[in-house]
UniProtKB/TrEMBL annotation:
The chain crosses the membrane at residues 420-439. Residues 35-392 form the Malectin-like domain. It is found in: Membrane. This is Malectin-like domain-containing protein. It comes from the Eukaryota. Residues 1-26 form the signal peptide.
């Protein structure tokens, strides 16, 4: 069984107690840094009611960098955190001291071009490294991106700080950043175990807590877009329509009741109410189980491991023990006869998630499907999915962006500085050598100019 994390059984009444408890306590992370880079204001309120602090005391002050402000008159159309940025043509680093250690931290980097006289931000090109992970390499924004570009990572933090280093790709390049978030993740956001699924295997693997993850897709299936305002970890969940292979035969549903979060299942920090209270389902028609699947496909970069998190919550069945279905990842059976009532100890509308790891994805497309199993019942719901997240996992070099390690990126900048210095030193040495040579030449040339005369004289004499 995938990461259900149900280790012991509780009584029904305890579950109700726990779910009431979880309703009362909102998540408040120990580390919660929201930085509006390049802003002189102490506080900036974004449209999701979050307070971002200015960055003047945040970054290493020894580093030369400049603050950029948008010269655009039409500033009202996007969040105030994108009105300023910090730009640098030398490495810039931000340090965030952590209270919450030995846990994962969420790192979000925001990029939004702004109009200014100094730089064309589309020409920026830089690397980003954090706590030994390569987050971005030779990163550029493109006119074709939709803005803001938000890069989100969940990285294990074992030291007392999160250090985010921005490094221009080379000494002629520069970089920029508009906003940074560093938030300690709730303990249950990343599980140590998952189910590895490919054409030959379907086996439990562990040790995932050592990994870092980059969010590549986060989808609220069958529902509306969820913005950070309605998510206790300030995430964005997009609608599933553009990922759906075909919507023939599937149905979107919405549930108006209470989502029953409980210990052992998904918490509100794993998935908010607005994700679990909508879904896409397959229903029996005319008293027979339809012979179909619902499939979503996701573009991914080749050559990485991915973690696929599928969110389930039976908000569709009329009673318990009526919903049984199969789950496929890349066409491989990931979970057969999934019985949500069994997992949630007979509670409907109680959320749960399952993590699947896909090794070295080589097609560039990742497919997730749900469909009836051979125990699906006629006159019932025969498959359901409420949400999907696709996370890229770091490679063996600790990188999310190519086969390069953080150290070699940091060293490459030092080398670039030496490259600037070397020609300089070389030029000085050359100058000295040349002038010495010229001095000697003057002395020697006296002899030489004489020598031929002497020789000719000698010759003449001879
Ligand atoms: C943007 O998209 C257009 C059309 O697809 C393409 O021709 C152009 O090269 C793209 N620009 C960049 C910077 O990728
Ligand atoms: C938050 O969720 C509620 C309930 O689903 C919805 O009515 C509201 O529009 C959402 N707000 C935002 C800012 O998305
Ligand atoms: C359901 O059954 C009715 C009558 O047997 C038939 O007319 C209809 O086409 C069936 N619908 C589907 C979707 O199979
Ligand atoms: C559902 O998907 C699985 C895996 O790709 C496949 O084996 C099965 O035949 C599909 N079922 C239907 C009805 O297409
Ligand atoms: C139902 O699933 C079981 C277990 O995988 C399998 O042995 C059996 O052949 C399946 N039955 C049908 C009708 O596909």
């Amino acid at each position: 069984m995938a990461a259900t994390k149900i280790s012991s059984s509780f009584t029904f009444s305890l579950y109700i107690f726990l779910s009431l408890l979880s309703l009362a306590s909102a998540f408040s992370p120990a580390d919660h840094y929201l930085i509006n880079c390049g802003s002189r204001a102490d506080e900036t309120l974004d449209p999701d009611h979050r307070v971002f602090a200015g960055d003047h005391s945040r970054f290493a002050s020894s580093t030369r960098s400049i603050r950029l402000e948008n010269a655009d008159s039409d500033r009202g159309s996007y969040s105030p955190i994108y009105h300023t940025a910090r730009a640098f043509n030398q490495p810039l680093h931000y340090t965030f001291w952590t209270k919450d250690r030995a846990t994962h931290h969420l790192v979000r980097l925001h990029f939004h071009p702004l109009r200014n006289e100094c730089n064309n931000l589309f020409e920026a090109e830089f690397h980003v490294v954090a706590n030994g992970f390569v987050l971005l390499r030779t990163f550029r924004i493109s006119e074709n991106d939709s803005f803001p570009v938000i890069k989100e990572f969940v990285i294990p933090v074992v030291s007392e700080k999160v250090e985010i280093r921005f490094i221009p790709s080379n000494k002629w390049k520069f970089g920029f950043v508009n906003a940074i978030e560093v938030i300690s993740a709730p303990q249950d956001l990343i599980a140590d175990v998952a189910q590895l699924v490919d054409s030959e295997r379907n086996e439990r693997i562990d040790g995932l807590l050592k990994n870092g993850f980059e969010t590549v897709h986060r989808v609220n299936v069958g529902g509306f877009k969820v913005t950070p305002f309605n998510d206790s970890l300030w995430r964005t969940w997009v609608t599933d329509d553009e990922y759906l292979k075909s919507d023939d035969g599937s149905e979107k549903i919405h549930f108006g009741g209470q989502i029953k979060y409980k210990s052992g299942g998904a918490s509100r920090e794993v998935g908010p109410d607005n994700v679990y209270n909508t879904a896409r389902v397959i229903k029996s028609l005319n008293g027979s189980v339809p012979n179909m699947n619902i499939t979503w496909t996701f573009q991914v970069e080749k050559g990485y491991r991915y973690m696929v998190r599928m969110h389930f919550c039976d908000i569709a069945s009329a009673a318990t023990n009526m919903l049984y279905f199969n789950v496929y990842v890349n066409g491989n059976l990931a979970y057969e006869n999934l019985d949500l009532s069994g997992i949630t100890y007979g509670l409907l509308a109680s959320p749960f998630y399952a993590d699947f790891v896909v090794n070295g994805e080589n097609s560039g497309v990742l497919a997730v499907s749900v469909g009836p199993s051979n125990t699906s019942l006629p006159r019932a719901v025969d498959a359901i999915l409420n949400g999907v997240e696709i996370w890229k996992m770091n490679n063996f070099m600790g990188s999310f962006d190519g086969e390069v390690c953080a150290d070699s990126i940091l060293r490459s900048w030092k080398r670039a500085r030496i490259d600037v210095l070397l020609p300089l030193v070389g030029a000085v040495v050359l100058l000295i050598t040349a002038s010495m040579l010229m001095l000697r030449r003057r002395n020697v040339s006296v002899g030489w100019s004489r020598l031929p005369t002497d020789v000719s004289e000698a010759n003449l004499k001879g």
